[in-house]
Design goal:
CATH architecture: Alpha-Beta Barrel
Number of strands: 12
CATH class: Alpha Beta
Structural class: alpha/beta
CATH topology: TIM Barrel
Shape: globular
Low-confidence stretches: 106-111
Strand order of the largest sheet: 1-2-3-4-7-8-9-12
Strand content: 15-25%
CATH superfamily: Divalent-metal-dependent TIM barrel enzymes
Radius of gyration: 18 Å
Number of domains: 1
Order of helices and strands: EHEHEHEEEHEHEHHEEEHEH
Distance between the termini: 11 Å
């Protein structure tokens, strides 16, 4: 049985989207273990929606998941932006922040998450940038494994690269189960072996999302469909190896009614309950 450690959240969560913000805000009986907010979408957002977000972060436990920190980018870190994040986290009592282990900028913003070369030099480079972010925020952050379609310069495997970064800098890991599955199909590696190789003690929480089946050997990480059966099975195997890890459902477009999303959240809870019942001593 995996060793236990303290997670920043617990249970099953849902990524907040404006499509169903009003539904949650207006339902005093809505319950959720935790929610995730994308800070770029809210940093300078006031008015009614801003007040609604503040009301929700007072009601529920929230984590933040960023898109534009550009941890692997060539440009200097945007330190004023990082300090603005720090103020946002304080305002909304957000104590857990994760970002993608990727780069997303060159001469400008690329509006995509690009893979960092899997090299020793890149490990040292990105570890220094993560350290600086943590110094500015005065908190430990988490890094997320991304999906990608073209292999970067590769002196090591993807899993070895992620582990090397975690060994060099004291940060956490947001493990995206769907991304592991998508990459495993697209780049012909063993998804379960990848997941089992990740250090349990660094896990903060998990992501679950849907993808599009372009072909048997090509999966596109869209976050626009329901979670596929193969990914549910991989989640169950993840719990079997790492224990019950807090898990959050993402949906970014083709967003169905909130009740339909909550059915998937309840499916996460079901896997968590099953593991817990089967492993009670």
């Amino acid at each position: 049985m995996p060793s236990k450690h303290d997670y920043p959240v617990s249970g099953a969560g849902l990524g907040l989207r404006r499509d169903f913000l009003d539904d949650i805000y207006n339902d005093p009986n809505f319950t959720i273990s935790f929610m995730e907010v994308v800070p770029e979408n809210w940093l300078n957002f006031g008015g009614q929606k801003g007040r609604q977000l503040r009301a929700l972060t007072e009601r529920f436990t929230f984590v933040a998941h960023g898109l534009s920190l550009d941890l692997g980018g060539i440009r200097p870190l945007d330190e004023p932006y990082i300090l603005a994040l720090k103020d946002f986290f304080k305002t909304h009592n957000i104590q857990t922040y994760t970002e993608h282990l990727s780069y997303c900028g060159d001469s400008g913003h690329l509006y995509d998450l690009m893979p960092i070369p899997f090299t020793e030099e890149a490990v040292h480079y990105v570890a220094k940038r993560i350290t600086r972010v943590q110094e500015l925020l005065e908190m430990k952050i988490g890094i997320e494994n991304i999906s990608f379609y073209a292999m970067p310069c590769q002196d090591m495997t993807e899993s070895a690269f992620v582990k090397a970064v975690l060994e060099e800098v004291d940060c956490g890991l947001l493990l995206d189960v769907n991304n592991v599955y998508v990459n495993a199909i697209n780049h012909s590696y063993d998804a379960l072996a990848y997941i089992q190789s990740m250090p349990t003690e660094r896990l903060m929480y998990l992501h679950m999302a849907g993808h599009f089946d372009e072909a048997d050997d090509l999966k596109i990480d869209t976050h626009g469909q329901a979670v596929k059966n193969e990914v549910w099975s991989l989640l169950e195997q993840t719990y079997q190896h790492h224990g019950v890890v807090p898990t959050l459902l993402e949906r970014d477009f083709n967003i169905p009614p909130l009740d339909e999303l909550m059915q998937e959240v309840e499916q996460i809870r079901g896997y968590q309950r099953t593991w817990s019942l089967n492993n009670v001593r």
